[in-house]
Amino acid sequence: QVITGGHYDVDCRLEDPDGIVLYKEMKKQYDSFTFTASRNGTYKFCFSNEFSTFTHKTVYFDFQVGEDPPLFPSENRVTALTQMESACVSIHEALKSVIDYQTHFRLREAQGRSRAEDLNSRVAYWSIGEAIILLFVSIGQVFLLKSFFSDKRTTTTRVGS
Amino acid sequence: GKEGVRRAPGGREGRGGLGGAGPAPTPRSAGNYRTQLWDKQSESFLPSTPGLGMHVEVKDPDGKVVLSRQYGSEGRFTFTSHTPGEHQICLHSNSTRMALFAGGKLRVHLDIQVGEHTNNYPEIAAKDKLTELQLRARQLLDQVEQIQKEQNYQRYREERFRMTSESTNQRVLWWSIAQTIILILTGIWQMRHLKSFFEAKKLV
């Protein structure tokens, strides 16, 4: 997910060890992709911001690989889980999804804050710029008007003499 | 040298965070890395690079340096966060004699674990001599604690947001009043200046 910068979009590409493109999207703001690895090796992913002229982007990404490591490096995992144990397992899974939602919410907050700060600085610059322009224009108007009347005066005196 | 920076929004590196209230233990984060240098002759990455050092620097959300240490070509670093927010982790190599420029490449394997993910449960079971059920309960407790910390963090963020909104409101009010006053004063100045000018020119 893109957190800060410009239109909050980025290009993304995922390749497997043979170079086959598994996932390719352009200018996306947020996405989630699941796949099963068909073979061993180095999978490559690339986020690209080359389409952007000057904005930098901050991107959040998250991997979840395989299953959780087992709690016990146990050999005695042949027996079925007791009721208590399976209750614990379901609570664990539910809590994992709570944590995932919290992450999503935290990212939305960070993104909202970044947009707000952007807006704040743009409004501040605009207000200052506008005040300066206002001052220059009002002083300029007065001197311009004065210059109209001053020129007329000199022409009349020349004609007179 | 090559640089790697990871910034994760919110919390400590992307998970949870302190709210500031309550005796919650400070969250620990651990990272471990391994580097491999590109070898032009064999056109592959060498399995290990002895002699290459990496400098690890971690900054907290206020920009203060939390960790700044030199490690070898592979290492493990840990740090503790005291403030919620974005932390910056920077790894850069200190080596100039290695051919890292002019086509040189360095591959860095990096794994970062935050908070409860730094816990090694089999180790904890052995150390505290817990039964399976006790260990599972411990894991659930850790998860719930992480959730609480994150909620605390969100409460802190909401508080900051409210303060920012109120200050923005004040500033907008002050600015509008100031601008109206400037406008009126400028208008008055213009009138008086022009009036005295025209009177001097005997046009009025």
TrEMBL record, chain A:
Residues 1-65 form the GOLD domain. It is a single-pass type I membrane protein. Pfam families: EMP24_GP25L. The keyword Disulfide bond does not apply. InterPro entries: Emp24-like (IPR015720), GOLD_dom (IPR009038), GOLD_dom_sf (IPR036598). It is found in: Endoplasmic reticulum membrane; Endoplasmic reticulum-Golgi intermediate compartment membrane; Golgi apparatus, cis-Golgi network membrane; Membrane. Keywords: Endoplasmic reticulum, Membrane, Signal, Transmembrane, Transmembrane helix. The chain crosses the membrane at residues 123-145. GO terms for cellular component: endoplasmic reticulum membrane; endoplasmic reticulum-Golgi intermediate compartment membrane; Golgi apparatus. SMART domains: EMP24_GP25L. Belongs to the EMP24/GP25L family. This is TMED7 protein.
Automatic annotation (TrEMBL), chain B:
GO terms for cellular component: endoplasmic reticulum membrane. Residues 52-114 form the GOLD domain. The chain crosses the membrane at residues 172-191. Residues 1-32 are annotated as: Disordered. It is a single-pass type I membrane protein. Residues 1-15 have a biased composition (Basic and acidic residues). It holds the Pfam family EMP24_GP25L. Signal peptide: none annotated. It is found in: Endoplasmic reticulum membrane; Membrane. InterPro entries: Emp24-like, GOLD_dom. Keywords: Endoplasmic reticulum, Membrane, Signal, Transmembrane, Transmembrane helix. Belongs to the EMP24/GP25L family. This is TMED4 protein. It comes from Urocolius indicus (Red-faced mousebird). The lineage of its organism: Eukaryota, Metazoa, Chordata, Craniata, Vertebrata.
